[in-house]
Amino acid sequence: MAHAIADSIDSPHSVSRGRAAQVIGTLCWREWVRFVRQKNRVFGAIGQPAIFWVLFGAGLGPTFRLPEEQAASLSYREYFFPGTVILILLFTAIFTTISVIEDRREGFLQSVLVAPISRWSMVLGKLVGGGTIALAQGLVFLLIGMTFGLRFTLLSLVLSVVFLAIAALALTALGFVFAWRTDSTQGYHALMSVVLFPMWLLSGAFFPAASGWLAWVLAINPLTYVVAGFRRLLYVGVDHPPLPAELPSMATCWTVSLLFAAITFGLSVYVAGRPSSGNLS
After folding, report:
1. Segments in 117-241 forming alpha helices (H)
2. Torsions phi, psi of 271, nearest 5?
């Protein structure tokens, strides 16, 4: 497939929009083929967050309380649902960007890098492939949530899909940055466990915003606005939505999420343009 990408490029100096689209589509399709052939990834990305949602909902539900009157009817399972969907996107982003390390080890990445194509098209192809896989799995769980009594309007569903697509791209790009600078899958998993998972825990997905230093951590965490934005979108068109009062505004959530995606994509293109020495060195 790497040779097919290289052979499809006529000019060694530039790549037209049509050629870039061909490169992006080819790499995106390759990610999907790999995903279909590794069905255990579906369970890993959806199964564990689903288990978290069911078990934490049952265990913490009786003790969960929000001080705001407008959120008095909000159960913990319903509160935890947006964070679970984002966790699925996060896990899928981790699994898909592992392919960057595997491609380097197998020599595929080197073949693509020496082809006369632009780096941004290569990066975008990987990100679109991983991001759409993450989005598809997030939407599957979104539909599963409807069987547990969660209801969405058509407008909230459409806006949620767009918002989750942005979040999936941002998280996949962030995983790409770390994977590009890491030589082993073991080191990559260790890095993700101390960076991305705590980032999710401190996003308001698992517990409401607190006071003191923890509130500052949540405020500077971009994933906080992803979770908050998705939480708000689930109740678009609903009178008196059960939302915590401290949630950021929808405009702020859109702005931060778009900036998060743009910055992580820019970082992905930047690191792809530099030689990788591995182990984040």
Report:
1. 119-146, 154-180, 185-201, 213-220, 222-233
2. -70, -30
Lookup: tokens for 236: 């678009």
Q: What is the pLDDT of residues 195-237, one digit of tens each?
A: 888 888 888 877 776 667 778 888 899 999 999 999 899 888 7
Q: Does the global pTM surpass 0.70? A: yes
Q: How far apart are CA 131 and CA 261, in angstroms?
A: 11
Q: What six digits make up the tokens of 215?
A: 């509130």
Query: How far is the C-alpha of 235 from the C-alpha of 253, rounded, in Å?
Result: 15
Cα gap 10→266, rounded to integer Å:
26
Rounded to 5 degrees, φ, ψ at 175 are: -65, -35
81 and 145 Cβ atoms separated by less than 8 Å: yes
Contact in structure between 229 and 163 (CB atoms under 8 Å): yes
Alpha-carbon span 130 to 152, nearest angstrom: 26
Give residue limits of the domains in the chain.
Answer: 2-272
Q: Please report which confidence band the pLDDT of residue 146 belongs to, taking 50, 70 and 90 as the band edges.
A: confident
d(CA 167, CA 258): 8
> Are 92 and 139 contacting, i.e. CB atoms less than 8 angstroms apart?
no
Quote the crossing angle between the two packed helices 154-180 and 222-233, to the nearest 10°.
160
Q: What are 99-138's pLDDT values in tens digits?
A: 888 777 776 666 666 666 677 888 888 899 989 998 988 8
> CB 225: neighbour CB atoms within 10 A?
26
Check: CB of residue 23 under 8 Å from CB of residue 122.
Answer: yes
